[in-house]
Amino acid sequence: MEDRLGAAETKFAEIVWERGTLPSGELARLAAERLGWKKSTAYTVLRRLCDKGLIQNEGGVVTALLSREEYAARQSTQFVSETFGGSLPAFLAAFTAGRKLTEKEVRELQRLIDEAKEG
């Protein structure tokens, strides 16, 4: 997956993530209904997302190659890498600067750390 998605691309991808596999014509209809797009705009964005490796359009059937969660994980990893040199502790320090974590947040973070250590 290359590049981040713009706001319009994200809204379009949300339709695919929500619906799963669907015909490209139905996707274009939903984009017109929900986003106010012309058919040509929907197909342009569809092609861009296919070029970016997020979705595929095979035989007029559109499917996501990455789930919403997989896309978010890749973007998060890329952000931490670019902004904090890949340092998760540096990211967490910046994220929590100036705010106190709740006990629930601390427990959840500890659970995630424990799970990551276990493999």
List the helices and strands and how they pair.
Layout lengths: L6 H13 L2 E2 H12 L3 H13 L3 E4 L2 E4 L3 H17 L3 H9 L6 H16 L1
Helix pairs in contact: 1-2, 1-3, 2-3
What do you see in this structure?
With 119 residues, the chain is mostly helical. The protein has six helices and three strands, in the order H-E-H-H-E-E-H-H-H. The chain has helices at 7-19, 24-35, 39-51, 68-84, 88-96, 103-118; strands at residues 22-23, 55-58, 61-64. The chain has a three-stranded antiparallel β-sheet. Strand 2 (55-58) and strand 3 (61-64) form a beta hairpin. Helix 1 (7-19) crosses helix 2 (24-35) and helix 2 (24-35) crosses helix 3 (39-51).
Beta-strand portion reads 5-15%
What's the SSE pattern? HEHHEEHHH
Question: Looking at this structure, what is the CATH superfamily of the largest domain?
Answer: Winged helix-like DNA-binding domain superfamily/Winged helix DNA-binding domain
Rg calculated over all Cα atoms: 18 Å
Would you state the CATH class of the largest domain? Mainly Alpha
CATH topology of the largest domain: Arc Repressor Mutant, subunit A
Distance between the termini: 25 Å
What's the number of domains? 2
| Strands, total number | 3
Tally of individual helices? 6
Give the name of the CATH architecture of the largest domain.
Answer: Orthogonal Bundle
Structural class from helices and strands? mainly alpha
- The level of helicity is 55-70%
Q: How is the biggest beta sheet arranged? A: 3 strands, antiparallel
Query: What is the approximate shape?
Result: elongated
What is the strand arrangement across the widest sheet?
1-3-2
Mean pLDDT reading: 93
**Low-pLDDT runs:** none
